[in-house]
Amino acid sequence: MAEKKETATKKANKKDAKQKATLPPSGFKVAVREILRSKSACIALIIIILILLFTFGGSLFLNSAQVTEMNIADAYYGWGEAGHLLGTDDGGRDIMKLLMMGGRNSIMIGISVTLITEIVGLIVGLISGYYGGAIDSVIMRIVDFVQILPQLPIIIVLTTVIRNYNAVTLVFLIAMFGWTTTARYYRSFILSQRDRDYVLASKTSGSSNLQIMFREVLPNITSMIIIDVVLTIAGNIGIETSLSYLGYGLPTTTPSLGTLIGFADDPVNVISRPWLWLPATILLLVISLSINYVGRALQRAGDARQREN
């Protein structure tokens, strides 16, 4: 009798072990696996961490008032002159310090805009894709209308007429248009999920629509959300940099990658003073490429996760 019980216990343990072995790995594990498989993604991730340490960590030791303070006597020092590793600008401000603060500001704006657009776009896309029908048609027509508006010209006009314009204002102006692309992106995934068996089973069991959307459907598109967040950050950093370069982004008193790259407007600076604009240009290029490589790895992880499910 004891032997039979022991045999039954062993079989049960083997069955449990087999079931655990057949369970698909978590989304986080799949993402880590795909990043480690790609040398370019690993290098890109390390570079992103170093840039964050340089901009956010370095800014902790800086006084913004002192960094932006003018000192004409120190104007246009070149590479490494007078203790300035990356030289100084026309106001005698240290380019290295401006690069730290400018990079931090541009990245923070990119993250802030992404946070707003992802939340709004996710909710709109979730409602539109889940309900479909007339609700989907009305929401999509609104999205179409916002998308056909000329984004940059409208932002430029608003920056000139809004009083007390600052970084917070810029974040909301960019987010005012950015949510539409995100909403369309999530709607397409929700449309493919709403008729799945698990959704129909939840409806049959009496779950409310809100419970199904946020408790059942949303966890199944988590990998898509992560991918979109990563890639959208790079795009929003680029938008902020473009506006600041044109003079309609952050105020001139606030350092930004765009304001530093703006020194390239002067042909003299392009040829004779490359330290004014080149470091910011390289930093922006490296950030964009690194995020793109990591985003590709996450996209592969999302595809692999869907196949394994």
TrEMBL record:
<dbReference type="GO" id="GO:0005886">
    <property type="term" value="C:plasma membrane"/>
</dbReference>
<dbReference type="InterPro" id="IPR035906">
    <property type="entry name" value="MetI-like_sf"/>
</dbReference>
<dbReference type="InterPro" id="IPR050366">
    <property type="entry name" value="BP-dependent_transpt_permease"/>
</dbReference>
<feature type="transmembrane region" description="Helical">
    <location>
        <begin position="217"/>
        <end position="239"/>
    </location>
</feature>
<feature type="transmembrane region" description="Helical">
    <location>
        <begin position="168"/>
        <end position="186"/>
    </location>
</feature>
<feature type="compositionally biased region" description="Basic and acidic residues">
    <location>
        <begin position="1"/>
        <end position="19"/>
    </location>
</feature>
<dbReference type="Pfam" id="PF00528">
    <property type="entry name" value="BPD_transp_1"/>
</dbReference>
<keyword id="KW-1003">Cell membrane</keyword>
<feature type="domain" description="ABC transmembrane type-1">
    <location>
        <begin position="103"/>
        <end position="295"/>
    </location>
</feature>
<keyword id="KW-0472">Membrane</keyword>
<keyword id="KW-0813">Transport</keyword>
<keyword id="KW-1133">Transmembrane helix</keyword>
<comment type="similarity">
    <text>Belongs to the binding-protein-dependent transport system permease family.</text>
</comment>
<keyword id="KW-0812">Transmembrane</keyword>
<protein>
    <submittedName>
        <fullName>Oligopeptide ABC superfamily ATP binding cassette transporter, permease protein</fullName>
    </submittedName>
</protein>
<dbReference type="InterPro" id="IPR000515">
    <property type="entry name" value="MetI-like"/>
</dbReference>
<feature type="transmembrane region" description="Helical">
    <location>
        <begin position="275"/>
        <end position="295"/>
    </location>
</feature>
<feature type="transmembrane region" description="Helical">
    <location>
        <begin position="142"/>
        <end position="162"/>
    </location>
</feature>
<feature type="transmembrane region" description="Helical">
    <location>
        <begin position="107"/>
        <end position="130"/>
    </location>
</feature>
<dbReference type="GO" id="GO:0055085">
    <property type="term" value="P:transmembrane transport"/>
</dbReference>
<feature type="transmembrane region" description="Helical">
    <location>
        <begin position="41"/>
        <end position="62"/>
    </location>
</feature>
<feature type="region of interest" description="Disordered">
    <location>
        <begin position="1"/>
        <end position="20"/>
    </location>
</feature>
